[in-house]
Amino acid sequence: MPDLLGLRGVAGEQILAWIRHARAMQEILQRPVAKVPALRGRRIALMFFENSTRTRMSFELAAKSLGADVLNFSASGSSLAKGETILDTAKTISALGADCMVVRDGHSQMPAYLSQHLEEPVINAGDGTNEHPTQALLDLCVLAQLWQGRFEDRLLVIVGDVARSRVARSHLWAAHALGHRVRLVGPRQFFEPGLVEAFGCELTSDLDAGLRGADAVMALRVQKERRQQGGPWLSSQLDYFRTYGLTRARLQQRGEAVPLLHPGPVNRAMELAPDLLYDADRSQIQTQVQTGVALRMAVLYWALGGSDEQIVERVHAGT
Ligand code: CP
Asked: Ligand 1 centroid vs 78 CA: distance in angstroms?
């Protein structure tokens, strides 16, 4: 059974296949009864050892929309508090009959570690500062729509806390596979050494220069919880907003608004001007959340052995 631990080393064709499958799933989600029995009788375990709203709820909705049962695990209230390890927790959930494990954890590589000890496919729902592959894939679904399916020669500008961002890392691997350019923008202390060399991306600390020529802009959350509270990493939230906050004026490039993405959750008036958040003409944020359900349906279906042809057949057969 296949795991989805990250986008590192994943071929462009596979990424495009997930995007294509997600489009078929979107068709299912638009039906009056937005549900098919494609994974009926299968059990999807959602193992979230770290907080989540979007990823967790969209995986749950995705599993239910495919007719699967969901085993919901939350760290709070679990036997972790009695000293049970994450591996033993996963083994317990495996014994309960899970067919697939969706794992979020604050430690990088925890899904990879669990996959070495489990028979079931493991899907990474965000691990530490390593990767968040399904977030990047759903963003790419949105970009595929905006860019008419053509990634080559496009420029995605990513603004913000790159060093702590698993979303940015998944995007950098995906760009390597799909052939679009990525430009990183932010204060120097938000970049780790070696990024340009490792990924061949562009990098600047000047936001206005960094936005030039962008085909889409993605702001990243400043990960306060992963940074030393009150530490020297930023002078102030207001300073950050003045220097790196995205506003209508800044997004107005070449006389038209550049599409704005953000994986969420957003720090209002830090990464974005609050009036942009739900401005449907500029912001793709709500579309990203909606697309997450279809993309996660495609990934769950793939992880449990469904094929491209089966998805298309099922969509047309209405099953
Ligand atoms: N983008 C994202 O992973 O959001 P959640 O933490 O709410 O799942």
From this structure: 21
